[in-house]
Amino acid sequence: MTQMTFARAINSGLRRSLDNDPKVVLMGEDIGTLGGVFRVTDGLQKDFGKHRVVDTPLAESGIVGTAVGLAYRGYRPVVEIQFDGFVYPAFDQIVSQVAKMHYRSRGTVKMPITIRIPFGGGIGSPEHHSESPEAYFAHTAGLRVITPASPQDAHTMIQQAISCDDPVVFFEPKRRYHDKGEVDEALDPASAPPMGQARVVTDGSDVTLVAYGPLVKTARDAATAAADEGVSVEVIDLRSLAPVDFATVEASVRK
Q1: Of the ranges 119-123, 134-138, 197-201, 248-252, which one carries the lowest mean pLDDT score?
Q2: Residue 139 bears catalytic tag
Q3: How many CA atoms does the CB half-sphere of 118 hold within 13 Å?
Q4: Which 3 state secondary structure label does DSSP give 245?
Q5: pLDDT tens-place string over residues 213-247
Q6: pLDDT tens digits for range 136-145
Q7: What pTM does this model have?
Q8: Does the structure show a pLDDT above 90 at 122?
């Protein structure tokens, strides 16, 4: 087990995916030489080369469109949208092409594309840098939408997303990038909880509080405060917004 930040945990997961599969390619604005604005991809271009960690033009539609072509050719592209509010130029590509291609081709074409999006507020940034557009994608048939809430989940879930044959929108809570936690880098993602499965992170008996991404820590802090007043709060980390693990939520509510 290693103490690492949320951002470093994602970096480690990306590195492991690049190591394990030569068809994994990273693309995005400033992700190579700079290592990304949050330094999540720091060092990866140096170690894997410019042909696998690609600095792209400032054109989100072009980035995702190129990823579609790569997926057609058998690659597993991982694209970074630099900030949540920058995703809209690529919205048509994501919801009209990436999400639909498998169904449109009657299953003959797979779109194993992972779209990384830092999202949410909490870092003092202006409007296009502090949005939460996850609902758009969670309500789009054909997309998986997930968001980790801990460094360990960030490490394993990014690998699970990349190895998935479905397109995955991977929302990263930017306000948690510097939070630290224990990470087992040797954990096989295949033996970790599936990325579509919710997790009870705080046991309770009075009320169920459901959260995801950056607000899981907030919910756990609320549960601690409520305990001081004699209220037992059970906190569930959804982890996946599409699909939603309603069974775990229902079991908690039934208590």
Answers
A1: 119-123
A2: no
A3: 25
A4: coil
A5: 999 999 999 999 999 999 999 999 999 999 999 99
A6: 999 999 999 9
A7: 0.96
A8: no
Domain span at residue 43 reads 2-191
User: Catalytic: which of 51, 102, 128, 129?
Assistant: 129
Q: Which CATH number do you get for residue 217?
A: 3.40.50.920
Give the residue from 136, 166, 191 where a domain finishes.
Answer: 191
Same domain, 182 and 128: yes
Tokens at 74, concatenated: 């058998």
C-alpha dihedral over 118, 100, 102, 188, to 10 degrees? Answer: 20
Q: Give the contacts of 242 (CB within 8 A, at least 6 positions apart).
A: 137, 138, 139, 140, 143, 144, 145
Is the same domain home to 136 and 70?
A: yes
Question: In this structure, what CATH number is given to the domain that contains residue 97?
Answer: 3.40.50.970
Residues 63 and 186 in one domain: yes
Which pair of structure tokens corresponds to residue 245?
A: 């693990």
